Every structure is written in C-alpha cells, then in structure tokens.
Amino acid sequence: MPKTAHKPGFATRAIHHAYDPALYHGALNPPVFLTSTFGFDSVQTGADRFAGEAEGFIYSRVGNPTVSILESRLASLEEGEAALATSSGMGAISAVIWSLVGSGDEILADKTLYGCTFGLLEHHIHRFGITARFVDMTNPENLRAAISPRTRMVITESPSNPNMRLADIAVVAEICRQAGALLVVDNTYCTPYLQRPLGLGADIVVHSATKYLGGHGDLIAGAVVASREHIDLIRSTGIKELNGACISAFDAFLVLRGLKTLNLRMDRHCATAARLAHDLEAHPAVEHVFYPGLDSHPQKALAERQMRAMGGMIALELKGGLSAGRAFMDGVGLATRAVSLGDAETLIQHPASMTHATYSPEERAKHGFTDGLIRLSVGLEDYEDIRNDLIGALDQLGGAATATQPVAVRDTVHA
Ligand code: 3LM
C-alpha cells in the first residue's frame, strides 16, 4: 500500500489493500495457498487456535491466507469491519440465515428477489420453523406496518433482480433498527463501487461474487460483509458447522484479480447501459424499459441519491409480450442467451423460465413481474456493437410486434 497519511481511494484499495508483496518474495500477485490443512508446531498451538486463543490457520473451510486477503479487501471496499468469502452467493445468503435466524423467528423480504433466494424463503425455510413473508419495500411504510418483535431479519436487493425496484436503504435500516431486526442487503447488482449499504445503516451486505466482483464469468463465489462480531459468528457456525460453503483459494485469487478492474468495468457497464436504456425505450417494439437512470423509473431520484451510477442491468418488456420477447432473444447475435450477470459479455435471459423459474406463474404475478420480462446484463463490448445487435433484433420483429397485446392473452411459460 502507498505510504500516505490519508486513506487510499477505492481503486487503490481494490488493487493493493491487505497484500504486501515484500512478505512473498516481491510477488506482485498473492500466492494461491492450495492447502486443505495447516500444521501446528505443537499440540498446544493447535488447541489454542481451535479455542480462538491464538491467531493462525487451521483448515481451509474456516480460513486460508489467499482467502483472507480477499476478505480484508472486500471489507475495505464495502467499508465494513470484516468480511467472509464463500463458495457462492447462495452459500453467503444461507450462511447468514442459518447463523442468525432460528426456529420461531420471522424473516421479512422484499417482494422481488433473485429466484433462488425467493425459493429458499418461500419454499424451504418453513421446514426449519422459520416464517418468511414478503413486503413491497419500494414503499418503506409497508415494512413499518409488517415488522414485529418476531422479525429477526429483513432481506432486500436494491436494485432488485430482475425488475430493478429500489429500496430506500437508509429508511429501511432505521425501521429495522427501531424494531431490533437485522437488515441484510444483497449488493450484487451495484457492488461497493456504486453503493455501500453499511454506510446507509444496513447490518449485513451479501454478494454473489460470481458477478461483477469476479467480473469475467469464470467462477462461482459469494461474500458477506458485516461487523467483526457477525462475521466471526457466521464463519464459526454458518460456514464451519452448517453449510460448509467455503471458497477455494483459487477462486479467491480470481476474485482478487477481478477486483483490480472493478471500478473501470463498472464505469463502462454503467455508461453503456445508460445509453442503451434510452435507445431501447425509444424503439416502437418496446413497451417498457426498467432502468433506474430513466425518467420513466419511479425511483430515479432515490437511485441518484443512493447509487454512484445506475448500474449495468436493464429489464424490458416488448409490446408483443412473451412471443415477441422469445423472437427478440433468438434474434440477437452478439449478446449471449445465458443467465448470470456482470460479465464482460452482454448476456440476455428470460427470468420467468430461467433465473426466476422458482416462482410459479401465480407467484410471478403476485410478486410483480410478467412472463414477458427480458433481462439484459450489459457487457463491455463496444457500445455501437451492442446497440446494433439489440436494436437490429428488435427491428427484425416487424409490425406485429409493435402492437400492444392485452396482458390476458400473452403467452405464459410454465417452467
Ligand atoms: C442470475 N444470480 O442470473 P450465486 N444474489 C443475487 C443474484 O443475482 C444471484 C445470487 C445472489 C443469477 C444466477 S441463475 C441460475 C444464475 C442478486 C445469482 C446467487 O450462488 O453465486 O449464483 O449467487 O440472476
């Protein structure tokens, strides 16, 4: 790290924080400690480490030197006390829940969430004696009305996957604080470069590091950032004894490599997505574009307050509904038809049959997104090429696709 009196900036910390090459033969990049276990110099040392009375590594499920560098760096970027890297975003979310919520407790979650987070809360968690209820957090008053002494945890994404709804994190955090509930914000869509929920009052941030943090579509990983006390608890219970979702040292190395360019990539994702959202909105085949930077987004002012820029994710609906959407998606050439997000490549996918197929058609209707919704993860290719690909595919749809179909006759997908 540079020897300066003031705190280095985001990009500098993303490249240097918590790693001193001088300790590793000057190696510019951290070594990948591919080891399951760590030897103790005496029985007493081992016992002391297990008892938490001596520093030092024990076993890579609970800690590894390469992983520790990533964890310190993520904590610094999110401005949290400590972090925990996990094998996936779902591993992070489940470790947080298993560690902090118990039988008889309630979780309140936003109305739209990533499909597997929704699946966990709606379809499975009741088997462990935990109740999950969903409220529309675009209006924090809904949360204020629903929260109760039984509410142990509140979970939200902002913007939400897939339809870009926002929660006012500062207001939601204050409601949670007053009620004694923990606020967990999934910051996957924004990354700490665009939004820092802990600074707005959230207790815990979770990430799918598979996405922008890794940034290259070559790994699955997750992270939790919170107070030292919460991270120690989640590591020693959620990861060590409950779900075992530890990250491999090699994947930690890849996330560290991705972080070095996080701010540059995010700037480019955001700039291209902002231009593209306008172009898509102006196309006659498009019914609606969901992007927080557009004047048509009802929470644009909140997004401008809460986020540095508007992100690289766009959702859209075509006037021709699902059938036009399918033709559009089959008509693109540069964009890849694939789930996941935050990669260098532009990705296009259909939430109702893919990422959010965990919602039944009735649940999708109740939770507020249609079968015609299409999601774009805007990549790092040249703006003109992405634009030409998408607008060209929309142009190919022809006149029929520009006629608005009544919602009732739109095709539905039963995933
Ligand atoms: C997706 N999302 O395409 P992993 N939180 C958020 C997410 O978007 C995701 C996770 C957590 C997608 C994955 S769908 C089969 C592919 C906001 C993942 C979970 O466990 O690292 O995949 O993260 O939207």
TrEMBL record:
<keyword id="KW-0456">Lyase</keyword>
<dbReference type="InterPro" id="IPR015421">
    <property type="entry name" value="PyrdxlP-dep_Trfase_major"/>
</dbReference>
<feature type="modified residue" description="N6-(pyridoxal phosphate)lysine">
    <location>
        <position position="211"/>
    </location>
</feature>
<dbReference type="Pfam" id="PF01053">
    <property type="entry name" value="Cys_Met_Meta_PP"/>
</dbReference>
<dbReference type="InterPro" id="IPR006237">
    <property type="entry name" value="L-Met_gamma_lys"/>
</dbReference>
<dbReference type="InterPro" id="IPR054542">
    <property type="entry name" value="Cys_met_metab_PP"/>
</dbReference>
<dbReference type="GO" id="GO:0009086">
    <property type="term" value="P:methionine biosynthetic process"/>
</dbReference>
<keyword id="KW-0663">Pyridoxal phosphate</keyword>
<dbReference type="InterPro" id="IPR015422">
    <property type="entry name" value="PyrdxlP-dep_Trfase_small"/>
</dbReference>
<dbReference type="GO" id="GO:0005737">
    <property type="term" value="C:cytoplasm"/>
</dbReference>
<comment type="similarity">
    <text>Belongs to the trans-sulfuration enzymes family. L-methionine gamma-lyase subfamily.</text>
</comment>
<dbReference type="GO" id="GO:0030170">
    <property type="term" value="F:pyridoxal phosphate binding"/>
</dbReference>
<dbReference type="InterPro" id="IPR015424">
    <property type="entry name" value="PyrdxlP-dep_Trfase"/>
</dbReference>
<dbReference type="InterPro" id="IPR000277">
    <property type="entry name" value="Cys/Met-Metab_PyrdxlP-dep_enz"/>
</dbReference>
<dbReference type="GO" id="GO:0018826">
    <property type="term" value="F:methionine gamma-lyase activity"/>
</dbReference>
<protein>
    <recommendedName>
        <fullName>L-methionine gamma-lyase</fullName>
        <ecNumber>4.4.1.11</ecNumber>
    </recommendedName>
</protein>
<dbReference type="GO" id="GO:0019346">
    <property type="term" value="P:transsulfuration"/>
</dbReference>
